[in-house]
Amino acid sequence: MAAGDEATTLSGVRVPFALITPSVPGDKIDDRAKGAKLMAAEMCIVHNCLIRGINAIYVQCVNVATKGTDQDKIDFVGFARAWGTMIEEHHSIEETDVFPEINDLAGVPGLMDANVEEHAVFHDGLALFIAYLDKVKAGEEALDGGKLQGIINDFMPVLRDHLEHEITTLVELEKYSDKCDWSAWFQKKGGEIASKGMKNSKYRVEVFPLAFCLHDKTYAGGIWASFPPIPWFFTMVLRWLFMGTYKAWWRFAPCDLTSQPHKMPFA
């Protein structure tokens, strides 16, 4: 498989939205990123999870709607809705916590405002995606794969561009490296955010597992195989405690709960 193909396939299936390659944050297996570039690479991992998630939804929704059982449809909507929650929370945390702190640390008011403005561009489309799934879940509408793909097509190209633009913005923070050790700060901030999230029972069972089944440890030669940075024993405990609650949802993901690619059932 060519390097370019790896960014546009998901478990061997062609997908519409390309992943962000390690070259964007400047990370290489033989020359690992440092400082702001390392922070950007770690954010790139999260953004690729988001892209893999919507790709998995996109390529399976028509077949789930036309060939799936009622239970398949219920589980699929659960998976898609969890992705919606994940991206909503991701952007909310950036706007209220991460970006303002970056502005303060760099000493440049409004430094990250362009990224917040990009959030506003796809906000309505993402809200429509979530509202539609909620109606399907409530039995107010039937699952229509073509309709869901249409909704995704309206907002996802802009969202995908934003996810890459943001990585570039973070790389450019290297010019303020005299004011902050960006890598150390981001690791600390990430730990705080994860710790806060894990105190929420819904987050633990509906969103947290996506960090595993939307991450591919084999991607780009395994350059980001160490994500998430959690000791293996702790990971096993979390998997046992929380990841099995909605196990039927995660079968639609492109990877299993050990972050290894697997065949998606309706792709």
TrEMBL record:
<dbReference type="Pfam" id="PF01814">
    <property type="entry name" value="Hemerythrin"/>
</dbReference>
<keyword id="KW-1133">Transmembrane helix</keyword>
<keyword id="KW-0472">Membrane</keyword>
<protein>
    <submittedName>
        <fullName>Hemerythrin HHE cation binding domain-containing protein</fullName>
    </submittedName>
</protein>
<dbReference type="InterPro" id="IPR012312">
    <property type="entry name" value="Hemerythrin-like"/>
</dbReference>
<keyword id="KW-0812">Transmembrane</keyword>
<feature type="domain" description="Hemerythrin-like">
    <location>
        <begin position="76"/>
        <end position="170"/>
    </location>
</feature>
<dbReference type="InterPro" id="IPR053206">
    <property type="entry name" value="Dimeric_xanthone_biosynth"/>
</dbReference>
<feature type="transmembrane region" description="Helical">
    <location>
        <begin position="219"/>
        <end position="242"/>
    </location>
</feature>
